[in-house]
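User: Here's a structure from my thesis project, written as structure tokens. My advisor, Dr. K., wants to see whether a designed sequence matches the one we expressed. Can you design one independently, without my sequence as a hint?
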């Protein structure tokens, strides 16, 4: 992970912990993909993709989460869940970090 990505992830984690979520895993990786953050909000397991964009030249951070990236996140989440005793309610969120380091939290980011 590049230094900017690590910084964005640290900012996102700090922000989400401040919102009352509980960290379960960080940088969960398997053969099919990687999940930046896995947290618990109440009884809901939250898979979080963190994106940072320094400029809008090629679209914002949200536009960088492609269909292929979503599929890899879903596959990694399935792998994570396969190793749990119980399957809780789940959702996919995104935390977008702008050039000034301000996070924007999008719950249910992949619902269309």
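Assistant: Designed independently from the structure alone:
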């Amino acid at each position: 992970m590049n230094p900017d990505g690590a910084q964005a992830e640290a900012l996102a984690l700090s922000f989400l912990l401040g919102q009352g979520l509980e960290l379960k895993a960080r940088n969960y990786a398997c053969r099919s993909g990687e999940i930046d953050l896995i947290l618990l909000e109440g009884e809901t397991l939250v898979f979080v993709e963190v994106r940072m964009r320094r400029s809008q030249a090629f679209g914002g951070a949200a536009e960088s989460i492609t269909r292929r990236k979503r599929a890899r996140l879903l596959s990694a989440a399935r792998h994570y869940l396969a190793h749990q005793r119980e399957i809780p309610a789940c959702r996919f969120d995104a935390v977008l970090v702008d050039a000034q380091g301000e996070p924007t939290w999008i719950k249910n980011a992949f619902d269309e």
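When you compare it with your expressed construct, this may help: Residues 21 and 41 are 5 Å apart (CA to CA).
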